[in-house]
Amino acid sequence: GAMVERGNEAVNDGVGGNGGWYAGKTDEEIVADTVSWLAREMRGMMIYRDYREIYDRALAILEKWRRSFPKSVWIRVVKSGRIAKELNECAPVIKHALDRVAKMPVPADPDERATVIDLCSGFGYLGMFLSEMLDPRKVKMIALVDKQWPMFNAAPKSHQINWDHVYGIDGWDPEWPIKLQTRKDDIKQAGQLRQIEKHVFGKHRGPFIILAVHLCGTLSVKAVEMFNLHENASDLVLKPCCLPGWNHTYTHDTWELGGHCIPVKDVCAKGKWKGNRWIGPPRSHLRHKFATWCDNLYKGIDVAESEKRTEQILIQEEGGHQNTFMFVER
What is the pTM of this model? Predict the structure, then answer.
């Protein structure tokens, strides 16, 4: 799910995966040939076919980071082996953000610039690329929201996301063109949602662009609720991930979302991920249920039909079915 998929590369040592392209390579070799390796890996992906401009810009950004980040930070950024897959999955989201910000005027008052909220950000790849690609005259800040970040002003613990790439280390400052700010929040917790309301939505005057990529289970409901609740949220991009667990059927018959009722039994799955293994009914059986889940989430987005659309974008080409993106513009 979101915390696993987008977060498992992010623990303190930053070394995920099981080998991969860097297996057996020295740190020097990793630093030397990473970008060319990533370029080759992405050539077989949708980003290269359908989002060539984003592919080209991303490679230039990766090369800039490789040259400017301290070695320890760069190795942590790439050694998970997930950066190509993340970029590929986020390409439609990056395109939406670029198109929307391009249409925005440069506000006379810099405090009225837009704020981007990346929900369940994991390591923060999406926000990092957007900081380099969006116009700082129009976007003030990118908030990276994830329950795995350390508390503000605390040192990252081993099970938490290391944030050296966000805030710097040993006198090195990453100098993000648009400020990145981490927020340790679990969006399933009402109290922590109130903190986001107060310290993010309450503090910034411009429009909010909510990006919710790869949200697991009921996290998708929370993202839609956040958008519905805040009139100043101009955009939502939602890409749901796995289905809610069957345990929800013991406590709820329906979920209310934007005036729409979601029948819980129709959208919950028996089975769960354990590590990288699915334990439960064959995943092909979940295809119809996932379509029902997405349809119900879409109906719960509380805007006019003309302000929202859903698209099937083939991110998962090897038999996966989680390819639904929802784009909402108020």
Answer: 0.88
